[in-house]
What we know:
Distance between the termini of chain A: 18 Å
Shape of chain A: elongated
Low-confidence stretches of chain A: none
Number of helices of chain A: 5
Helix content of chain A: 25-40%
Strand order of the largest sheet of chain B: 1-2-5-4-3
Strand content of chain B: 15-25%
Structural class of chain A: alpha+beta
Largest interface: A-B, 55 and 82 residues
Shape of chain B: globular
CATH architecture of the largest domain in chain B: Orthogonal Bundle
Number of helices of chain B: 20
CATH topology of the largest domain in chain A: Alpha-Beta Plaits
CATH class of the largest domain in chain A: Alpha Beta
Mean pLDDT of chain B: 86
Number of strands of chain A: 7
Number of domains of chain B: 2
Number of strands of chain B: 16
Distance between the termini of chain B: 32 Å
Number of domains of chain A: 2
Oligomer: heterodimer
Largest sheet of chain B: 5 strands, mixed
Strand order of the largest sheet of chain A: 5-2-7
Helix content of chain B: 25-40%
Mean pLDDT of chain A: 85
Low-confidence stretches of chain B: 159-174
Largest sheet of chain A: 3 strands, mixed
Structural class of chain B: alpha+beta
CATH architecture of the largest domain in chain A: 2-Layer Sandwich
Amino acid sequence: MAATVVSLRRPKPSRQIGWIRGARAILNGLRITNGHFMRNLWGHIRGKSTVFTVQYPEERLELPPAFRGMPVLVQMDNGMPRCVACGLCEWACPTDCITIFPAETADEVERYPDVFDIDMSRCMFCGLCEEACPEEAIVMSHEMEIAAFSRRGTLWHKADLLTPVEKLESRLSHIRLGYERPASPPAE
Amino acid sequence: MADNTAILDKLRARFADDIVATATDRGDACASIRPERIVDIGTFLRDDPELRFDMPIDVTAVDYVGQAQRFETVYHLYSTTHGHRLRLKARLPEDNPSIPSLTGVWVGTNWLERETWDMYGIRFAGHPDLRRIYMYEEFEGHPLRKDYPKEKRQPLIGPGAIGTWTPSEEHRHVMELPIPGDGKGMLGAELMRIQMGPSHPATHGTVRIVLDLDGETIVGSDVQVGYLHRGFEKECESGFYYQAIPYTDRLNYSSAILCNVGYCMAVEKLMGVETTARCQWLRVMSGELARISDHLLCVGATCLEMNAFTPFLYNLQARELVWELINQLCGGRVTSNYVRIGGMSADMPADFGDQLRPRFKRVFELLSETEQLMIENPIFRERMEGVGTLSKEELIAFGVTGPLLRAAGVDLDLRRSAPYLVYDQVDFDVPLGAQGDNMDRFLIRIEEMKQSARIIEQCFARMPEGPVDVTDPRVRWPAKGKVFSRMEELIAQFKNVTEGPKPEPGETYVATESATGEIGYYLVSDGTGKPYKCRARTPSFSNTQPLSRMVQGGPLADLIPTFDLINMIGGECDR
């Protein structure tokens, strides 16, 4: 089991006359491109499109559960964020795009974020906030359409970020896969 | 391969008085020398048959602010004949730091020394062309010095911003560069100076090439990089070790995982951490996926540079299929952010194999169609064969690595010559070209993709079950399930996030084979959670340097495919 060195095979110098080589290349090209055309045409006739292009935004790709879109706040059933404003995501964020002002209530969960802003023009969707969060309160959603007409429009506040937990099931089930890790000694 | 002590003994025996100290730190041979003697030592290291350090890997500096000898220039050298490495260091004083230039020994140190001058303000005496390379001429100060605040903003060039600036001798503006020769072409007509780029589709939008043309023939060129410079090192030094991982994605954005792997391996080496078996297999597999996506883009774009639009689209379709796979692994297509210090951000999905096989079948169908369309095409062959050639020795002296060097027939693939992770346990071929022209560079990438697919197949067959992450909570953040329920892990999580991993003070250099060549990370730790110095030695930078030599004397039209086959990635070259 090891890597071996091989020398590269190059095409041999052709002995054919120039125009014959040119004509062969053209015919070969037509064969391949027409093959694609006929394949797509046949797929269209059968109603099973083989065209690779997706007509966004009318058509959309199905995103895998692992997909990291913009970070959002998980909303509990009582309408409050699950966040306890501990500030770990603020620490972990490489671009300092999160701003939190904590506040306290008399409820069972005493702390909550009074202000929770994410500057989406700085956010790079790396997901470190989600990994740092000790409460499963900030998760990467499948949402990534965050274009705005002004810089102020890219600043998302708590009310915009709060997302009901039902809408985040796919991502939550994905990150929960990594919650329990088997323990064993490292490799030799 | 001589071992570290043999190298250092030999060096000490020859230059007893000029070696300040030698050390072997974490397996890297390292010699501190007196700066005045660096040219003699460099010449000896290059020419001695047992040492033969023929390749300059990297030149950089570290700013130990507050110490009397404030700056330390750091040279990394590699021997392609013997496969060993050496780090040379020389301390310089705070005021007017200056060291003799090594451009006479290794031509490839030219840009690297310019970069060190630009970033740290260290003068290289005898350097032929000590201009700034990343920052613009009007920029004041040297941004990687520790006393240059990260938040400091300077006006960009433009009306009103220039202000008091007057060009000095060393700040020669591009249009004032001397025109080669007597300024006359072959037929007696004047040479024409044109600017190609930076906003030119063929220069990937980030490189400016100042060309002196005699008719259509290039008689002189000056390649100017830096338009995508975004302060990678400064950003990394201001954040914790783990916060730099997303930034490494943005070095080579067409094969981000390979950049992640190199960085995390460097931090792990600094901390003395051994990753788990499954993690290593997973890193190899995902890295090879990234390599395929990088080569697909390069091969497709080369066809596009030759006006062949169809294979470009086929290749992008194939790359899209590979990206879908990467997306399932880590949730990002381009910016993967997949690898973690001591593990991975997620394990492979259970159904990944079922997803991979049909997609790979289609990827290689499309690639085969590209081959059929291009390789036997007479126009393509005539434009590729014998174009952009540069001799082996010159490429090595420039510090060129990766497919570009292998196309010239130099057997240097770090996966083979210095196997890391589990590359010593998989079977694959390293294709070597013979002529080193553009055709070889094109074909070698196609062949490497096929070999990467072989490696991925083997990874699937042999990847062991077991944990992906190490269990040491000082290295890898604890499992979330326990963070939610147990106090100990919750404290560990808080400490990890707010303080970062803390390696012992010291330094390390780790080189891995990325899609474009050797990507190496030189990290210096001062014992805190933030890297004191985080240097990325990127292949694109060294590979772009000989472009002027490659296109010299050829027609302007050949510059486009030659530049493309260097596969300069702006993010990696300009950092």
